[in-house]
Amino acid sequence: MKRSPFEASTLDEIFKFDPGNAQRLSSRESGRLEFKETFHFGSIDDYAKTMAAFANTAGGYLVFGVKDKPRVLIGLKNDTFDNLDPARLTQTLSSTLAPEIHWEQHIHEVQGKKLGIFYIYESRIKPVVALKTTNEVQEGGIYYRYRGRSEKIKYSELRQLLDNEREKERELWTQTLRQMARIGIENVGVLDSATGEVSGGKGSFLIAQELLPQLQFIHSGTFVESEGQPVFKLIGDVVPVSTQLVQPTKYVRAPLHGVDILKAFLRRESILLPLDYVKQVCFEPSQFYPIHFFTNQTNVTASDVVAELEKMDCRAARKNKLIERFKTDETFTYGKLTSETPSTKRRLHVFDGLVAKTLNDVDAAGDLPALFHALTHLDRQNADPEYLLPLLLRVAMPKYSSISPLDAGFMRKAICHLDIVWYKQASAKATDELVSKAG
Fold first, then answer.
1. Terminal Cα-to-Cα distance of the chain (whole angstroms)
2. Which letter, b or e, does each residue of 70-80 get, where b requires 16 or more Cβ atoms within 10 Å of its Cβ?
3. 117: three-class secondary structure by DSSP
4. CATH 3.30.950.30 holds for 8-152
5. pLDDT at 238 > cutoff 70
């Protein structure tokens, strides 16, 4: 069972007091702990830097309500932390850092004083990189935790981080191949956890999409009923035994994937079941896929789409993030067009070519990040779908599966920006209704 980062024993260790001074904390800022006197949403740039540093190392705690030098509890002075909208902070962090970092929020009381805590999980995919320049972070910057300080990563730590990522991938492939060899390649099936399709040399079947969130993966060595882990067995013609987890499903269409959503948008396809494309975003690793293009094909309002999403049996966090996209005015503008840095000059050159419709495939493919960033600066007046969509299909789509996760994220968000520019206006009334309700 996953342990909470806010267990009493852990928090007691953080809020341990000096034996000689009952008001002073003996805990010091470290690689996994940082104190702040107050919480202000306007200081999110500073918090984002620290949160990225924790995510790039081993995770950590960001505590609000502790004065430094000396380290004494002062508590939160207002309800800003209590009233923080997690979706708003998540959206802000997602526009500043990639890949997405995962965090939890907690209120803790010590000596009658209320403290706010963020726990930032170690990122599964490293490095976490800054997407844009703010007061505290620089576009392309990688931040790391050094003994109580969050700083740009040094070469030795970056080298070790990248080596560790490669080693993790190598170990995973090795374990997978050994398992396949033991089972026999003809007996191996592969589960796509996003769509529920299990396919292998002996055929395939589907796990009902609404039941996918109930899947529990058993760690090696713990696959026994006595430890409370459910054991599922399929017999005969894919018949469930003592559970509804797996059920037979007729194969009525090819399962959807994120790449299918992108291709359908870029090709401006007329979709038979467009709502399925919106719902599929709930099962993708990122919530940043075009949604308004498909919503407009449903012939229902954005409110109706949200109502359908709320009924879905899937991970609440992913579903809520997608619903929040319908309720907020999203922005996906990355980088600047006005400074004199080399990256800005490249971005401006690409932007001018996109507006003039003179950017050729070779120049576009030569700097894909600049292409994706430049796309986010286009508006309805200068974004020509007849020129841009074929360009992306020829230049970017063939490379989508091979570019870095960071660049793939830039590509998806650039497409989200075009989706807003071209298609959100068609359902503006319904979207305004949602925003007013949220307010």
1. 37
2. ebebebbeeee
3. strand
4. yes
5. no
Cβ atoms of residues 128 and 101 within 8 Å: yes
Distances (CA, A) of 369 to 320, 364, 400, 422, 435: 29, 9, 12, 22, 32
Q: Name residues whose C-beta falls within 8 Å of residue 264's C-beta, 6 or more positions apart in sequence.
A: 271, 277, 294
Contact in structure between 383 and 391 (CB atoms under 8 Å): no
DSSP 426: G
Sign of the Cα torsion 180, 182, 185, 189 reads: negative
User: Which residues neighbour 254 within 8 Å (Cβ) at sequence distance 6 or greater?
Assistant: none
193, 207 in Cβ contact below 8 A?
no
Q: Which residues sit opposite 191 in a β-bridge?
A: 198
DSSP code, position 398: G
Cis ω before 127 (30° cut-off from 0): yes
Distance CA 240, CA 204 (A): 15
Bridge partners for 110 per DSSP: 113
Cite the beta strand spans of 139-268 per DSSP E. Answer: 143-146, 149-152, 189-191, 197-200, 203-206, 234-235, 239-240
Q: How far is CA 332 from CA 41, 84, 90, 213, 418, in A?
A: 20, 22, 14, 29, 10
Q: Compute the distance between CA of residue 316 and CA of residue 318 in angstroms, rounded to an integer.
A: 6
Q: What CA–CA distance (Å, rounded) separates 94 from 341?
A: 24
For residue 416, the SS3 value is helix
Q: How far, in Å, CA of 94 to CA of 52, rounded?
A: 11
Residue type, 235: I
Q: Using CA atoms, how far apart are residues 119 and 71, in angstroms rounded to an integer?
A: 20
What's the mean per-residue pLDDT of the chain?
Answer: 82
- Cα 230 to the center of its chain, rounded Å: 29
Percentage of the chain beyond pLDDT 70 is 83
For 33, the 3-state DSSP assignment is strand
pLDDT(11) > 60: yes
* Nearest CA-CA partner of 302 in 22, 7, 310: 310
Q: Which residues is 146 bridged to in the sheet? A: 149
> Comparing C-alpha atoms, which of 279, 298, 299, 297 is closest to residue 289?
279
- Answer whether residue 396 shows pLDDT above 50: yes
Compute the average pLDDT of residues 413-439.
Answer: 69
Higher pLDDT, 79 or 248: 79
Give the residue ranges of DSSP H helices in 101-193.
Answer: 155-183
Q: Is 46 helix (H, G, I), strand (E, B) or coil?
A: helix
pTM: 0.51
